[in-house]
Structures
1.
Amino acid sequence: MQSRRYAFSLVELSVASSLTVIVMLAVGGALHLMTRGAAGIQASSQLNTDASIAMARIRRELGAAITVTSLTPTHIEFTHPDVDGDGADDLIIYDWPGVAGGSITRQVSGGTAVPIVENVSEFSLASTCSTVTVPGETSDLTGEVVLASHEAIPPGSSGTFGASPISSSSWRGEGFSVSADDLESYSITRAKVYLKGTGLSGTLYLSIRSASTNTTYEEETLSLSSLSSTEYLWYEFTFSSLTEMNPDTTYSLIARTSTSSTGANFGRDEYTANPAGSDYYKYSTTSGLTWSADNDRDCRYILYGQLKYSAPQEGQTITRKYLTGLTFGLKLTQGSSTAEMTSGTACLNRPEITGL
């Protein structure tokens, strides 16, 4: 007798189809989770690599710091043995703007700030310091002190920051005088001036001159190509022969360049109303042949030197702060992936913190 073969019923086909769909969805979900997990592991691994490289660089350079001029939990400026091959120490700046997702940047000697690590959600610097107090000595000659300066608009005054263009014909500067009871004379050791370059090559000259600007007592130079053209920075000049300056006598700090076009700008403040006792801004557009003064402006400068009194004076107690170590924490975040690490370094040179 011949057997009969039955076809699948509609119910059986429906059940089989449903089971097939469920199995396929399960397999697809598993593959998706595996793919997403692999991508997450890869992203996390990359963040850890980025963080490790950045931390190693910061640790290595901070360990060799010579002096520290600025230090906050998210910013540090320090001098470091030559890194750009010019034979001179370099100023290195590490900075994080404090915004999640931002970058930590590294800047060398006024150059372009370059990101060294991105996707930063946290960055902090914590210092370990030693403090040394040096008692003042009784002498008629002080240590180096600030003789005269203008670094910002004085409290209670209003005004705006501007630029004083410097060229071979446009000379810019500031008048100053130094006075104190029983002061016999003083010397000028160095000056810092607030400058911004314009990208030209040539030479910047900074001189100490008489009040009438007819006599130059000493003049020092700086290459224009070494000036930052993106921001104003403090640049230092050292003097060696200004040892017998007269108290209560007005002198002039004058800047000029070798270029006929503007080679640099001297940062200045222009007051809405001139504050009492301010120094006066000086300028010449005739290569120093004729001069004008303006009491409503001040160039930004700091003048250092030593005071010599007619009788011995008790010196001021000096407190010096040295950086012995730094601990820094770094956290990177990208999507759901994070990398977090803490590291530290011993500062081998015990750099003095001069900017605090």
Note: Residues 49-134+320-353 form one domain.
2.
Amino acid sequence: MTESSVSSPNDSSQRIVGFVEHVELSGHIIESLILPKVLDQITALGGSFAIDQVTIGQHRHDPSDASLTVHANSREQLEEILTAIGQHGAVPRDPQDCSLEPCDIAGTFPEGFYCSTNQRTDIRLNGQWIAVQQQEMDCGIVVDKIAGTARCVPMSDVVVGEMVVIGRQGTRVHPEFHDTATRDAFSFMNSTVSSEKPKHVTVREIAAAMKAAREGDGKILIVAGPAVVHTGSRDHFSWMIKKGFVDVLFAGNALATHDIEQSFYGTSLGVSIHEGTAAEKGHEHHLRTINRIRRLGSIQQAVEAGVLTDGIMYQCVQRDIPFLLAGSIRDDGPLPDVVTDAIDAQRQMREQCRDVTFCLMIATTLHSIATGNLLPACVKVVCVDINPATVTKLADRGTFQTIGLVTDVEPFLSVLTDELKVEG
């Protein structure tokens, strides 16, 4: 960042003094519209630019490169611009090593720490770019100078003495590239299939992605709310677990309770699944369900004792599928398997998210947003909810790769399982 005399972009004869930085962009900056986004960001923040050089790839998958000179009227304005365009992959032409400060208070970063995004990131150390591990948004980056490694660490987990990256210097972001030539749902970020648009093609593409994940090196995470049970979709979901389309399950006390309630009483929140009418004393069923499982010790012990013989949680135990039931202040009981410490639940969710390549979120706003915050941008995410706000909130909070479907749970899972059953 230097103070220099530069030409005004509006009048080549006028020369003014300002602050400039030479930056570079590389990769799929044309087809992903990254270059125009960067230029627009510069002007929106009150700066100006000069394009020094652009090399455009000749084929769709060929990378392109651009060199820019960014101009601002103050050092603070230039820093704001560079921070903003850095999230699109712009880096100084002559990068410096990252700045590090030790953590001095456990669970607290030093002032001015670099706040991570969910996009693939590098830091520069000893003149070399190093990939940041365990990529996650809203974390700090901790560097092990001896091992030459860097990783994202949530604020609550940083330890005194760990070296933390400060500011944007020596950081580099790699924006996600979605190939629009494939023309499928996962080629378009921030795409939402509304309640008034046909969904069958998108559901077919979701099924194809899940098949690919199951047959390859993928890992499928399902985040599910109690509406899966309330709407009569439990059998669809149980079949998916049985057939290997679920590798990890995130849910809360309600999903597991109402799933097991259906096994014990044929009701969900006291309403008959088959008749749709309230059962006599049905309001007690979920409490009696929780109490029975607590007396047995756990969901797994209920399965082993032959007390629980079907349903979602039964299939998870039978197939040894890890599940994380995160508690909330409004939980009855809760079930003995529920993790009631929010920070502990977050840590366990974070660990289970490792190596996830596909995430399907079904009818649960808070769990969906919480999980989205933990996933890197390279993970394919699908959010299904009858409430459009749930879908848009995910993107608003940074999980921009989400494909959203505004629809009821049962029709979606019915069509999805039909597509998953199709061979080839």
Note: The radius of gyration is 25 Å.
3.
Amino acid sequence: MKAIFFLTVLLHIVMTVHSSAAAILKGHSAGMAYRLDEVADSLGTVWGMAFISPTALLVTEREGRVRRIDLGSGRMDDIGGVPPVRDRGQGGLLDVAVPPDYAEEGWIYFTYAKEQDGQGLTVLARARLSGKTLTDWQELLATQSASTADVHFGSRIAFDDRGHLFFSVGDRGKRENGQDLSSHAGKILRLNRDGSVPHDNPRIGGSGLPEIWSYGHRNPQGLSWDGGKRVLWANEHGPRGGDEINVIEPGGNYGWPVVSHGKEYWGPLPVGEATSKPGMLDPVKVYIPSIAPGSLLVYTGGAFPNWRGNLFSGALALTHLNRVMLDDRLQAVGEERLLEELDERIRALAESPEGYLFLSTDSGRVLVLKPDR
């Protein structure tokens, strides 16, 4: 009887290990086989992800939590020291990012929705991680974007290789903010990493807020710096139709709400005056119908060599991983929709040091896409 009992237990263990090691799904793209595995589940809405070591992934949950996932053991630690956030509508604790020299400086950057006099606004801050606690918390910029509308916070962060950071702020549900240079709403901002304003920011019109790098945006939730080509990429939510991918130029006006490819939610009428207008920059790619892009990443890794230089976005409304191929002139020349059978709202993306593609879903999962060899 004991032998049968231990044999049954051993069989259960083998089956459990086999089950946990089984891929969620498999597929092929650009001549390469991939598999999708689960890293963690039962989280909140994972809005941002950042690698703080080759085996440690830091994630933010919109509800106001930060967790560290040990990719070797699967252990998750709650991280303390997080300030209160305005967890309403699309707001809450949003992006997390680390600069290329994180190992030397130790600064971790966050964006979140903050409560101020009954309104919410997008804030950029940074802190250091000591054990399981965030310390030395510094609020770098409380943007001029306060509103009672808990929508369109933007809030992605990207770093270039010259000591600057970029982060996005949505129009906060007020369309005219996109063209209002006295507001940070509807803009992409550029700062030095300590929160000061770079001396070579464009100073648009001579009277705009000094942090503004580009304007005329609706709700940019994806930012990615391509160091090889020295290009800043952004994607943003359009209205009903008209999501965009843009190359971001200093001082550039991207048109919202004067130009748009989208339509009103309440009827089949176009938003704005036209889809293009002199003095306003056209998108590299437009999505009609909307995919609702929740992130953006320029793939640079070695795990999937045929994807190098491609753009990846998580799609919220159309529940897939979106891949866009570019030519030498940075024009979109192809598109592929991956993981549609997963049927999950894919929000955040992160590339691991070995080139695996990590993604989060609004159902509280963290997944990893890796080669299936």
Note: The domain at 33-371 is CATH 2.120.10.30 (Neuraminidase).
